[in-house]
Specification:
There is one protein chain. The chain has 495 residues and is of the alpha+beta class. Helix 2 (55-69) crosses helix 3 (108-117). It has 3 domains: 1-31; 43-218, no CATH class; 229-484, no CATH class. The chain has a 4-stranded mixed beta sheet. Strands 12-20-19-13 form a 4-stranded antiparallel beta sheet. It has a 4-stranded mixed beta sheet with strand order 23-26-22-27, with no helix packed on it. The chain has helices at residues 2-35, 55-69, 108-117, 124-136, 149-163, 192-204, 224-227, 246-259, 272-276, 304-317; strands at residues 43-45, 48-49, 73-80, 95-98, 104-106, 139-140, 145-147, 171-175, 178-182, 187-190, 210-218, 232-240, 263-264, 269-271, 287-292, 295-300, 321-324, 351-353, 360-367, 370-377, 382-394, 396-403, 411-415, 420-431, 434-446, 451-456, 465-471. The chain has 10 helices and 27 strands.
Length: 495
């Protein structure tokens, strides 16, 4: 009985001693782990054994090894984000580059810190477990990589010359009286922001053996399907200008270039000013004669009104609707009465609306003094004609100005006056030779220009003006078909 008691006591003391010893070992181990400034045994990264190294030593070793990693090859592959019609976008070949050339490098400091933290985070059991695993089996720490965005941006900008392209609009040509469609093509544009974000994410995960270059498809303004239906000339107008007046001819050519190729979609209102843009020196326009308050003055963009007037007539003959149109201060020589259109960027515009359920296409050209505008679309079987009807002639007012510098009684005509007109512009619609309808498109009033006469007077203080008489001029007669052939209206002055 006594022996049993002694055995129990001895067993208890032994267990207590073992527990105490284990506790002391654990405490000592924990203190050692807490105070040890070295990376634990069995910790590796980038194939390097970092066991027993300080942070500085590990960082230096990883930096040396990282230089070799920076020379690794990276495959840059083009990835189209959205194409709509991928077959129309040419495939771009991949490129192989060195990682460092696009800003990829190892972050030795962050990697060394990650290796040092292994076995030092979490509760006691977690740390002991990690410590045991590294000693027993070894642990590979995922290296930290970084992307230098400035270097990456420069690299992407260099790729733009190889991978980016501009779209081309579909075009409609009239060759030997036959309409031909030139198909549109898609363009490509690198999405810088999306590409950089994706590269950053992949590099941080160390997955940069292949990097996608994100490319967006750029669609043309005029697609092939937009003009596929075009099979006829709906309206056409030709006016003439003097090519010897080079500044004015130059301005006409600039405006025509901006006008040519514009598409007016179904129900859309077309603005001449929006299509042609501002007329200023920065955009290449020159000084040329322009009508202002009945007189010709030099202004930037002189001659552009003739382009607007030619478009106005072509649009009317194509059956388009007039939304906005302004007259000149007096009749012009290149178009019949009531058929001109004055434009001035920011104040006066020419706007027409397409009433058809399909787009119409503008063709414009200027060469050798011939200005031509065509409206192309789907054949309707309807032909339009225009007729200018003079409703009233406004007589000239004569103004006499006294001039003391002239001999008394002598008279000199300083400015010859012009009659004014009230004109109605009719549009007539025909089908199969029969008149379908007629309408007044617009009514135009050209104010008369006064005849100014200087008369000699006795005293310089007796200047005055007085009306004397009213003079009428013959009304120009124009037939409905005169618009079709207006080559006799040759313009040689200004707008």
């Amino acid at each position: 009985m006594v022996d049993r008691k002694k055995a129990r006591v001895a067993c208890r003391f032994t267990l207590a001693g073992l527990v105490g010893a284990c506790f002391c070992i654990l405490v000592s181990f924990a203190i050692a782990m807490r105070d040890d400034k070295h990376i634990f045994d069995g910790v590796h990264s980038l194939g390097c054994d970092l066991s027993g190294m300080t942070l500085q030593q590990a960082e230096q070793l990883l930096q040396d090894v990282g230089k070799q990693i920076s020379n690794a090859k990276v495959r840059v592959v083009v990835k189209t984000l959205s194409s709509g019609n991928s077959a129309s976008v040419k495939e771009a070949p991949p490129r192989e580059v060195i990682a460092s050339s696009i800003g990829i490098s190892v972050d030795p400091k962050a990697t060394a810190k990650e290796a040092y933290r292994y076995g030092r985070e979490g509760n006691m059991l977690q740390r002991l477990r990690e410590r045991w695993r590294s000693m027993r089996y070894g642990v590979e720490i995922q290296p930290r990589f970084v992307l230098n965005e400035d270097v990456a941006k420069r690299f992407i900008n260099q790729l733009k010359n190889h991978y980016e392209s501009q779209p081309t609009d579909a075009k409609v040509e009239l060759i030997n009286g036959r309409i031909q469609i030139i198909k549109s093509t898609y363009g490509r544009c690198i999405d810088d922001k999306a590409t950089l974000k994706l590269w950053n994410d992949l590099v941080k995960r160390g997955q940069f053996a292949e990097l996608p270059l994100l490319v967006k498809v750029v669609y043309p303004d005029v697609m092939t399907e937009d003009v596929a239906h075009i099979d006829a000339v709906l309206g056409e107008c030709v006016t003439w200008y003097n090519p010897a007046q080079k500044p004015r001819a130059h301005n006409i050519l600039l405006a025509v270039s901006a006008l040519d190729g514009n598409l007016i979609r179904a129900g859309e209102v077309f603005s001449f000013n929006e299509a042609v843009g501002p007329r200023n020196f920065n955009r290449g326009y020159k000084l040329a004669p322009t009508l202002v308050r009945g007189r010709f003055v030099e202004d930037v963009g002189g001659g552009v009104c003739q382009v607007a007037g030619t478009l106005f007539n072509a649009a009317l003959l194509a059956g388009l609707e007039v939304v906005e149109r302004h007259r000149h201060s007096r009749p012009v020589r290149y178009l019949p009465l009531g058929r001109d259109a004055a434009v001035n960027y920011g104040t006066l515009d020419l706007k027409v609306r397409n009433p058809y359920p399909y787009p119409v296409y503008i063709k414009a050209s200027a060469k050798g003094g011939k200005l031509k505008v065509l409206i192309l679309g789907k054949a309707t079987g309807v032909r339009y004609a225009l007729r200018s009807e003079v409703l009233k002639v406004l007589p000239i007012t004569t103004v006499v100005k006294q001039d003391a510098s002239m001999p008394p009684g002598k008279k000199v005509i300083k400015e010859r006056g012009r009659c004014g007109y009230v004109v109605a512009l009719w549009r007539l619609a025909y089908k199969d030779g029969k008149l379908l309808s007629k309408e007044v498109v617009c009514s135009t009033t050209y104010p008369p220009q006064p005849c100014i006469i200087s008369e000699g007077s006795i005293s310089s203080t007796s200047h005055y003006e007085r009306e004397t008489k009213k003079v009428s001029q013959p009304v120009p007669q124009q037939s409905p078909e005169e618009f079709i052939d207006i080559s006799k209206f040759v313009f040689s002055e200004g707008d």
